[in-house]
Amino acid sequence: MTKFPYLKQDFLASIVVFLVAVPLCVGVAVASGVPAELGLITGIVGGLVTGLMRGSSLQVSGPAAGLTVLVFEAVSEFGVATLGVIVLLAGLLQLAMGFLGIGRWFRAISVSVVEGMLCGIGLVIIAGQIYAAAGLKAPESGLGKIAGLPGAFTDALGSTSALASLAIGAGTIAVIVLWKKLPKAVQTVPGALAAVVLATVATLAFSLPVATVQVEGLLGVIQPPGAEAFGELASPAIWGTVIAFALIASAESLFSAAAVDRLHDGPRTEYNKEMIAQGAGNTLCGLLGALPMTAVIVRSSANVNAGAKTKASRVLHGVWLLLFAAAMPWALALIPVPALAGILVHAGWKLIPFRQIIALWRAHKGEALILVVTAVSIVAVNMFEGVLIGLALSVVKTAWEASHVRLEIIDKGAGPIQAYLSGNATFLRLPKILDSLESLPQDRPVELDLKGLHHLDHACRTALESWAERHSATGTEPVKVTEPEQSVEAEKVTAS
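RE: above sequence
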């Protein structure tokens, strides 16, 4: 026992994580448009492969609700057979980023962009899974899903099977929400698992006309990518999907790692090694034709809260998933699809950062705007382009804030007008600077003091030269310029 001092704690934690993982693995797979077993395979790889590797010792990896939208789009466009190639290449890209030491740079991504990404994903998941809960086909686009909801509810009201299906989905959500209000002893069984079991029992007991999970068997769904799938790489569109998989999965995993580190006092995450572990897991998932994986905060927090001390708990959870998938595949066929939709609606709701949006709006309206625009862009366009829009806004905002410049004008009524520029003079603030200088009286001499500038870029320097020439062209004394400090890389601004 001295060799494994925490075996008991890790064993018990692994059982809890396994029970949390089963409905989520199956639900994410079904929502992604692939066989349910592929979600379990990704969970198994996340436990047995990624779980054994160094990086973040207590976070758990597997299929994530955050990638559901992206996977569904990829499967719709390229087919299930090509999914393995996409995941394989994304995994190799993650490995390369890990070995090149890029992992820690993901910590520099604006939190507003990440929160906006999760918010957008949450909205699309909720909208899409409401259709699944009613047994209806969802529109393909995010806007279409949301715009079509009133019509979907109208259609459901006229169908007995749709109403029964919606009742199972709504009941599942209600059980998950109310489960947390029950005694602690009852809560040792995860709410999502209890909801699925109760929904399954209700469906069987009342013979409800609702769809259940289609089962093909573990070995039957493993499809290593073939030559035809690799032939899809000739399409430029697939490379954008590969990059999106790699970047979004990496960002989710590393932000999850930072969150998990705040939950325990154990070893801190080694970000580049965690990136390598995620890349290794996704590479294997790609070879098996399974779903992509990320570190998942729900399973990771369950692991920590259950008392896990070492990586043994997450490895053991992978063992239990393997035994379940191999020995009890028949159990999957009993699970109602609307129950899984209910689980994902709840998961999508938790992805929407209501409190953060309110707090950001009070303290940093610009960051709140980035969050909202990123979320809306993901709903309106797609995940990859929505995140790029968010990142671009974040960069522009940072550049704008970094270019603070102050122009102070002193006019004593007689003699030259004195203009003092200080701060960072960049092209972003050029209109403001020129508007102020051009409003000065043309018949008065001007002294322009640039000593307070920390930075003067080429665009500003050229514009100031042109202004000085124009101001002096009317016969007024040439503009007198006091040069910036030597540390500022700026050429002399003069009037010819």
